[in-house]
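Appendix B. Raw example, untouched.
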Amino acid sequence: MSELPLPRHVAIIMDGNGRWAKQHKIKVALGHRKGVETLRAIIRESSDLGIEALSLYAFSTENWRRSPEEVSALMGLLLEFFSSEIDELDEKNVCIRILGDKEGMPPAQREALINAEKRTGKNTGLKLNIAINYGGRAELARAARRLAEKAVKGEIRPEDIDEDALSRELYTAGLPDVDLLIRTSGEMRLSNFLLYQCAYAEFDFPTVLWPDFDLNAYHEALRAYQHRDRRFGGRNS
């Protein structure tokens, strides 16, 4: 890896589990299980590289529309992941934050998410943000509603509502904006993920499906980022 600066905040849309399963003529649930293996490796590598924050799109508010069998398999994998990985993540000083509506999750999954946040909340290493039951537009509406409630109570004035005030009401409050967004499988859209936080993100769209996104592919995306000319609306001399 080059000595050039790495992104502080990497976001990943883990796309392609279903297509990978179809290619291998296996059930979609097994594609998701293979994707979890990739997930473990990427989390470990991000921690080892010293990346500050890693945000992963695990389950969107729209994913409830998938078949009951697939949703059930995903919910089961969620419980399995936190059961099998929480010890190592805690030992590696990883701080887990859930992005999304935990209250809308089934009881067992909700408890697992809450417990993971509580157990790792004081850790100071990689900030691992897992977007579950998450939608970017819903997040912005939630932030606006919270600001409106504060204004009604007289806690803030309408003229005090600026970008910083809005950022403090997002699930990602206190974290840097996304520097690099990776979406595997070659699809080129945000799919309602971190819409506000990705305002000046660099995008990378590798064609490899998520289960096959290995460390070499991850390093390639990071190296590509290191050579981007980031201007944030200005000009570099």
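End of appendix B.
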